[in-house]
Structure formats: C-alpha cells, structure tokens
C-alpha cells in the first residue's frame, strides 16, 4: 500500500492529502436547506448535507490529489446516519481513484484491536462469507497500549495490502504534555518512533514500510529529527493551514526525493470559502471552487518550500 | 453521573460491570442460524445474531448488575449493521435501568474530541433540533494527546451529567511498554493519574469526580498505588476473568467503603458457556443461564475478596 501512496504522490506531483472533516457550520445553507427539506432537521438530514458537501468537493479536487483523510469523529457525531455518510464517502473516493486514510485513531488490547483492524482495513467472516466493512486503505492508530494494541493492525495490513499511521507526535498544542516527557534521555515520542521503525521492519515495500507515523507540522524541529530517526517510515503530517503550519515548516519531514511524507489540510481546504483570501473571491455556493483554489495554493506552497 | 454509578453499586451490592463484547465465535449456532436464515450470511445477519445474543444475556442478568460496558470495536467490525446493534444494545440496557459505559477509547485533537464527545455522551445540533446520537452514560478516553484531547469530553460531561474513564494503566501484557517508562522518577501512568485527578477536581459529586480512570486488574500493585494517588477518581478495572485476574488481586483498587471501583468481565461472563465450570453444566443454548451463574460467582468472588 505504501508504494501505491508514494507513486500516487509522484503522479499527481502533490504530497498532500485533504482531510474530509465536514462540519455543518461550514456546509453552505443551500445544501443544508435541501437536505433538511428532504430528511428534516434530523441526523439523516445532517448526514445527507455532509455527504452532498463531500461529493461536490471530491468531484472538484480529486484530479489534483493522491489521497483523502476522512476524520471518523465528524461522521460519528451524527450517529448511524453520519457513519453511513462516512462509508459512502470512502466508497466514492475509491471510485475516483483516491487513496483513503481513515483517521480513526483506534487502539485497544489485542483481541479488540483485531476487531477494529478487521472492520476498517480488513475483512470479517460471517458464516462462509466475508466482508470488508469500512474498507479504508489506511488508518491512524493510537500507540498508548503498546505493541499488542498495534500488532493486530499490522497483521491485517499484511493480509490485505493496507497501511497504518501510528500517532508519534501529534499536532495539537498539548501534545507535549505526555509525548515530550523525557525517558532515558529522550522524549516519549522518540521511543514510540523507535517502535514504529521496528514494527515496520518486516513490512517494507521499497524504502518505506506499511507502518507509517503521524507527526504534526506544528512541530517542525521534531519532524526533522523524526525523519532521520525513522528512515523507513512514511510520515502523515497534520497541522498545516488552520492549525498554523505553512510550507516553510515542512522541508524537514521529507526525504531526499521530496517524498516520504504527506501533508494534510482539512478546514484550510474544505472550509476555504469561509476564510480570506478565498471568501471574497468565491461565494458560499462556490465552496468547491474555493477548495480547488486552496488545494492549488497548498501544492504550490509545499512544493515550493521543499524544492519539488 | 458518578454518584449514580456509586449508588447503583450499593443497591445491587455488586461492584461489577459486564462487558458486552459479542463475538460470533461464541454466539450459539441456533441464534446464528436463525439470523442468517432471515438476513443471510451478511453483516446484517451478523448484527442480528449479536443483538439477539445480547438481548437474551441482558434479560437474564440485568437485575444483578449496575452497569454494562459494550466494546465498540466488536460492533464496528460488522460495519453499519454492527453499529446499529451497538446502539440498540445501549437503548435496551437503558430500558433495563443499566448504566452504559461505552468502551470507545477515543481521543483526538480538541475540535475532533469535541465531535466524539458530542456523538457518544453529548448532543449534536441539526438546525434548531438536537440529538443524542449514541447516548452512552460514560465513555473511555485515550490520553495520549494530552489535555486538549480530554477536556472537550469533560465539558460535555458537565453539560449532560455524564462521565468518562481515562486510560491510565491498561490491562494488556504490553501496557508497560510506554505506560511504565520512568519520567522524573515515576512511571508515565502516574503522570497521567495526576492529570486525571486534576481534570476531575472541579467535577466532583461527593468524593468522586466524573473523570474516572481505567486501571487493569492484571496489575494489582499498581492498582493499589493508583487508588492512593487518585483519591477522587473512580476506577474502572478491566482484566478480570479471561485476562487472568481474580478477586484476590482486587482489594487494593477499592476505597474504605468497598466502593470507588468497578470490575469488568467480558468473555468470562458472556462466553461462560464455552468454558469450565459452566460448559458442562449449561449447554450452548443455555448461554444466558451460564452467564447468570458466572455473574453470581464473580460477585461472590469479588465481594468476598474485598470484604463487602
């Protein structure tokens, strides 16, 4: 799977992923009105609105980008109808040839991680049949429970040619509270990074393994260190745009071929129509055009900064 | 909410919670056959089988216990139909007067944790209406992202009289890999424990706060230390039964009133019919009777061990 992601970045010349984290706050009124008229001001109505919003976005940007990263929380908050929209979004992105990274941040004891892995990036058996319930290509995983919470995901990756990104150093302001604490002379996130390299060591496809890492763009120095500490680990980089990071922060996350990392922007793209410089140029109903402009600007910013 | 849990334990004289983690492997053939006949060997068929299994279990044990802990992974692995069974299980447990602890182990950056909290233990707005999508009473939360991943859950707890249990020291074999690492002279899990007390300090209901902790029964010494370090923190204790811990390991998790902790057993109860001493006494179709006997034995074991 990681080779597929690497190649898709080359083909599109765009080491970026768009976070599909829809929020009713920035779904245009016209879409909401239509959805509520049909389904009422219900969870079904909300789910219909975010699906219609996603579809229009995807249709307008899929040719520019290698991958999308839907955030499960944004769908789960609308209950079962929301999760139906999550699944529909995944399937539609596959139709458009996009790699789907499910930002699910799951992680549990062994037998439970097995179930999450099966449901999201693997298969479940029912009698003599088997199904791929959510069918993401890759998923994010929380390492707090240690190896036996992560290894079941890796097993499923091997069986189904999938990949994961383990949280190493997250992009949020308080990520240092535990992740930066010093253990035997180095921060916890470097210990997690060491494990990620180890977990990936027999999952290589070319230089990179199917066990990637999440490292926040908001911590560029740590990103540079982690790039060196994890030479076989592909890095998923959240925190660009709305969370504050820009292209100049990102060179250190990439390898010598200007690949090996993929930068995510969510609100910076899908809510571009609510913020300058796009707000003035595009009306609310042109949100998908604003998103396309924001994607093009992001590619230019990042490729410029990393010398791609 | 924590007062409600404390009182329910007193009323039932049972500091135990049953983990509703159904797996098709131990759902009786007769239930599966009927479900597959109706819905086929499909995700819908699997979901129907686990719902029927859960319902019969709940009907047979609800009078003995204060709470249940459905594990979201076991439902999520069957996709949308599985999650429909999760929701149905929660609603049915509420009908039976049980407190529902959603074992979801979510945790993300602030804005995303807000969405998880709203979806599971809070409300979401759609137009001028609002909904409680999953409607668990309490939920488990992963602390790896630090305060800003946890505080949105606590805000929602306050607004809706709900509670959370933050992972401090988990029950699995590799939990020590990161959680036991020494930082400034004490293990990471004690640092997390300190934060849990702090987060709970303005969420008290009597002696305990609505911010609880998960501490594995498989680590009794750590449990005893953590009980002292977190005097206002209610402890959810997984790892009893199938994971290896027994009543004698548990005294240190409780307070002087023999409350302040609740011990979970999942497979030890709901799959009792597959294991001795229940397997011989109860046939597969008497799984709910086997579960009732296992609940009674567990209550006796724990109450005996803690001197309740």
What features would you describe in this structure?
2 copies of one chain form a homodimer. Chain A is α/β, with parallel strands linked by helices and 308 residues long. Chain A has a single domain, classed as Aldolase class I (TIM Barrel), CATH 3.20.20. In chain A, 47% of the residues lie in helices and 17% in strands. Chain A has 13 helices and 14 strands. Chain A has an 8-stranded parallel barrel with strand order 1-2-3-6-7-12-13-14, surrounded by 7 helices. In chain A, strands 4-5 form a two-stranded antiparallel sheet. In chain A, a hairpin with a 2-residue loop joins strand 4 (124-126) and strand 5 (129-131). In chain A, helix 2 packs across helix 3, helix 3 (43-61) runs parallel beside helix 5 and helix 6 runs parallel beside helix 7 (147-160). Chain A is globular. At the A-B interface, helix 3, helix 4, helix 5, helix 6 and strand 4 of A face helix 3, helix 4, helix 5, helix 6 and strand 4 of B.
Instruction: Give the name of the CATH architecture of chain A.
Output: Alpha-Beta Barrel
What is the average of the pLDDT values of chain A? Answer: 97
What oligomeric state do these chains adopt?
A: homodimer
Q: Kindly, what is the distance between the CA atoms of the first and last residues of chain A, rounded to a whole number of angstroms?
A: 23 Å
Chains forming the largest contact = A-B, 72 and 72 residues
**Name of the level-1 CATH class of chain A:** Alpha Beta
Beta-strand content estimate of chain A: 15-25%
What is the number of strand segments of chain A? Answer: 14
Largest sheet of chain A: 8 strands, parallel, barrel
Roughly what percent helix of chain A?
40-55%
**Estimated radius of gyration of chain A:** 19 Å
Structural class of chain A: alpha/beta
| Unreliable runs of chain A | none
| Shape verdict of chain A | globular
CATH T-level topology of chain A: TIM Barrel
Strands ordered across the widest β-sheet of chain A: 1-2-3-6-7-12-13-14
Work out the count of structural domains of chain A. 1
Order of helices and strands of chain A: HEHHEHHEHEEEHEHEEHEEEHEEHHH
The H-level CATH homologous superfamily of chain A, spelled out, is: Aldolase class I
């Amino acid at each position: 799977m990681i080779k597929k992601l690497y190649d898709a970045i080359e083909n599109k010349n765009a080491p970026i992923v768009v976070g599909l984290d829809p929020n009713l706050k920035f779904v245009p009124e016209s879409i909401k009105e239509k959805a509520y008229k049909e389904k009422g001001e219900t969870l079904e109505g909300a789910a219909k609105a975010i699906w219609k919003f996603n579809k229009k976005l995807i249709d307008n940007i899929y040719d520019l980008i290698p991958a999308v990263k839907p955030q499960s929380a944004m769908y789960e908050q609308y209950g079962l109808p929301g999760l139906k929209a999550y699944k529909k979004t995944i399937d539609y992105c596959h139709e458009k040839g996009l790699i789907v990274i499910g930002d699910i941040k799951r992680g549990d004891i062994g037998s439970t991680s097995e179930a999450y892995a099966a449901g999201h990036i693997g298969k479940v058996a029912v009698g003599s049949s088997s199904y791929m319930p959510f069918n993401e290509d890759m998923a994010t995983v929380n390492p707090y429970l240690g190896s036996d919470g992560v290894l079941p995901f890796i097993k499923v990756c091997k069986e189904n040619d999938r990949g994961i990104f383990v949280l190493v150093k997250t992009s949020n302001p308080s990520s240092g509270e535990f992740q930066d604490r010093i253990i035997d002379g180095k921060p916890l996130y470097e210990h997690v990074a060491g494990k990620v390299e180890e977990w990936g060591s027999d999952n290589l496809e070319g230089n990179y393994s199917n066990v990637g890492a999440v490292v926040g763009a908001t911590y560029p120095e740590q990103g540079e260190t982690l790039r060196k500490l994890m030479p076989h680990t592909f890095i998923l980089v959240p925190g660009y745009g709305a969370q504050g990071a820009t292209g100049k922060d990102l060179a250190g996350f990439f390898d010598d071929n200007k690949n090996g990392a993929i930068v995510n922007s969510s609100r910076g793209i899908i809510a571009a129509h609510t913020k300058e410089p796009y707000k003035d140029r595009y009306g609310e109903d042109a949100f998908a055009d604003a998103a396309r402009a924001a994607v093009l600007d992001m590619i230019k910013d990042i490729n410029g900064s990393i010398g791609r």
